[in-house]
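We now fix the convention by which a protein and its fold are recorded. The integers have meaning only within a learned vocabulary of local backbone shapes. A record is reproduced here so that you can trace the correspondence yourselves:
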Amino acid sequence: MIPEEVLRILEFIERDSRKKTKEILRTAKHESKKIRSNFEEISNKERSRLIKEYERKADQIKSSALSEAEIKNKSRIKELKSSTVDEIKRDAISRITGKGYDKLFFSLMDRSVQEIGKKNLEVFIRKEDLGLAESYSKKTGITISISPIKTSGGVMIKSGKTISNNLLDSIMERKTEKIDYELNGIFFSG
């Protein structure tokens, strides 16, 4: 048999060990809660930081995509305007050089001669208008030197350093600003 003194010591050790075990478990649970709380706090902070970072990146991507779309849209509108202006010019020139072109040609010749005078005239026209220029010279008695050039029609007359440019291409080019203004009203109104 075990002496009573030893039993008491064993009982004391056992109680003390249970007490210390409970204390260690309590401390461990408390530390575990603290660690879990810290982990959640750190996790939440990291989650928030990541969300903000991805939102910022998403905003950058969205902004970049919008800018790119806007640039493409402006480029497309510019191309559309340019092709529309070109089409308007081609249509206008084809209408002008059709029926009634003779009257327009003589009118442009008269205007240019009035601007420059009647001496030493070099006349620049398209090949198709050679007969009209010669007819104008005979009709008015004005001596001209004719040089064919590549143009849509009309006339450019030079006397010395003075030039009167009434070529249809040049007239259309001068009107392009007005056409652009009108198209801007159509494309960008409202």
Observations:
- The domain at 100-188 is CATH 3.30.2320.30 (hypothetical protein PF0899 fold).
- The chain has a mean pLDDT of 85.
- The first helix runs from residue 4 to 96.
- DSSP finds four helices and four strands in the chain.
